[in-house]
Automatic annotation (TrEMBL):
The active site is at D38. Keywords: Isomerase, tRNA processing. Its EC number is 5.4.99.25. Belongs to the pseudouridine synthase TruB family. Type 1 subfamily. It catalyses: uridine(55) in tRNA = pseudouridine(55) in tRNA. This is tRNA pseudouridine synthase B. Residues 178-221 form the tRNA pseudouridylate synthase B C-terminal domain. It comes from the Bacteria. The keyword Iron does not apply.
């Protein structure tokens, strides 16, 4: 079994849990995921099976879309609903839709964000959550993220000294949406946390095309799961690509250096280029040569037999 399976990740499971379960269901050790989701988060989690595990790094999308809920009135240690309360302030007057939309619009573009203590970002060789679990808070360097789209979804609900609202965000890789929820609350003058999150899109992969584990198990029982897998070539279709003839394909399987097509001369060094056979198989991933600008070299050979 080989290809990319789009999983609708359930709540309560880590991404690693999902990989472990898929290994049992597919009866293979070759399963990997393409972007970590916290246990409380649901939604798009592409899983790579078999030979497709070689392309995990190319499917870690630069852009992702989420739908989230902010609860203002108290903050938590983890910046989401799973953490302990650390600050509280009553929202004792109505926050309007216009006020929320003004704040959301102010956060579009490139902004700085400090990663949360409960995250896998490394500082001095240790993951931040390791410090957090030991009760140690360390200085975290701010990182620049990009917010491409940030819109209010539905009404702003003011109730029981709390205010809640939902938003959709399309953002760059490395954005912490729970930290974004905290930042939104700060701009409105209140401690806040993220009370719900679902990833609806990862690159070109959309939630509507994802399967639940129940649907995956049913497909395995019927022997139809492979029909739901994206081929390696389909999964990489948005990369710059080159189709080669069979004679050259024989050289590619042995890691030959190739001429860089003229249309890709302006690519940055290291930018991936997918090389396909005439029958549509993605044979290898190449990249612009660091020293010889007119050539490209293989970074990953996917098929050693042609």
């Amino acid at each position: 079994m080989e290809g990319v399976l789009l999983l609708n990740k359930p709540v309560g499971m880590t991404s690693h849990d999902c990989v472990a379960k898929m290994r049992r269901l597919a009866k293979t050790k070759k399963v990997g995921h393409t972007g970590t989701l916290d246990p409380d988060v649901t939604g798009v989690l592409p899983l790579c099976l078999g030979r497709a595990t070689k392309i995990v790094e190319y499917l870690t999308a630069s852009s992702k879309t989420y739908e989230a809920e902010v609860t203002m009135g108290f903050s938590t240690t983890t910046e989401d609903s799973s953490g302990e309360e650390v600050a509280r302030k009553k929202v004792n007057f109505k926050i309007t839709q216009d006020e929320v939309e003004h704040v959301l619009n102010s956060m579009l573009g490139s902004i700085e964000q400090i990663p949360p203590m409960y995250s896998a970002v490394k500082v001095k060789g240790k993951k931040l959550y390791e410090y957090a679990r030991a009760g140690i808070e360390v200085e975290r360097p701010a990182r620049v993220i990009t917010i491409d789209d940030l819109v209010l979804l539905g009404d702003v609900i003011n109730d029981n000294d709390l205010t809640k609202f939902r938003f959709r965000v399309t953002c760059s890789k490395g954005t912490y949406v729970r930290t974004l929820a905290v930042m939104i609350g700060e701009k409105l003058g209140y401690p806040a946390h993220m009370s719900h999150l679902i990833r609806t899109k990862s690159g070109e992969f959309e939630l509507a095309n994802c399967l639940t584990f129940e649907e995956i198990e049913a497909a395995i029982e019927c022997g139809t799961l492979e029909d739901s897998l994206l081929s390696i070539g389909e999964a990489l279709k948005d990369l710059p690509n080159l189709i080669i003839h069979d004679t050259l394909a024989e050289k590619v399987k042995n890691g030959a250096v190739l001429e860089l097509p003229s249309e890709y001369q302006d690519l940055e060094v290291g930018s991936p280029i997918a090389v396909y056979s005439e029958d549509g198989r993605c044979l290898a991933i190449y990249a612009k040569h660091p020293a010889k600008q007119h050539l490209m070299k293989p970074t990953k050979v996917l098929y050693n037999e042609i």
